[in-house]
Write a structure and sequence with these properties.
The chain is α+β, with helices and mostly antiparallel strands. The chain has a 4-stranded antiparallel beta sheet.
């Protein structure tokens, strides 16, 4: 029994970006994370140990986004995908991550800039 667990709009203030002012001043990034797990045991036993704890996943994402600034949100998205795929002691079968940068340095009116990556565990 495959379950889809999603976290949407996780706000993290961080210092990613190509420009010096982005690194110095920082800005909000929003992360959407979806993981697919086989939670059969968790469902039948009502046991958190048989699934992915979304609170722990959110904390891991926030800690990761706040650390090690990068130039590109593509790099950050891939890093978060790798984190998600290896989260929960191998319970995650596949994952999808979107990094939103709504305050990207663009001179035109826009709503959002985002990068989405997805993947599955190689041992699946």
């Amino acid at each position: 029994m495959r379950q889809k667990i999603s976290i949407k709009g996780l706000r993290v203030f961080a210092h990613h970006g190509v420009f010096d002012f982005e690194r110095q001043n920082g800005q909000d990034f929003y992360i959407d994370a979806t993981v697919w797990v086989d939670a059969s045991k968790a469902v039948f036993n009502d046991d958190l140990g048989g699934t992915v704890h979304y609170g722990d996943l959110a904390k891991a994402i926030v800690d990761n986004v706040k650390s090690h600034p990068v130039d590109l949100i593509e790099t950050l998205a891939q890093r978060l995908l790798d984190l998600a795929l290896n989260f929960g002691a191998g319970k995650v079968e596949k994952a999808k991550i979107t990094v939103h940068k709504p305050n990207a340095p663009i001179v035109y009116d826009f709503e959002d800039v985002s990068v989405t990556v997805k993947g599955r565990r190689e041992d699946q």
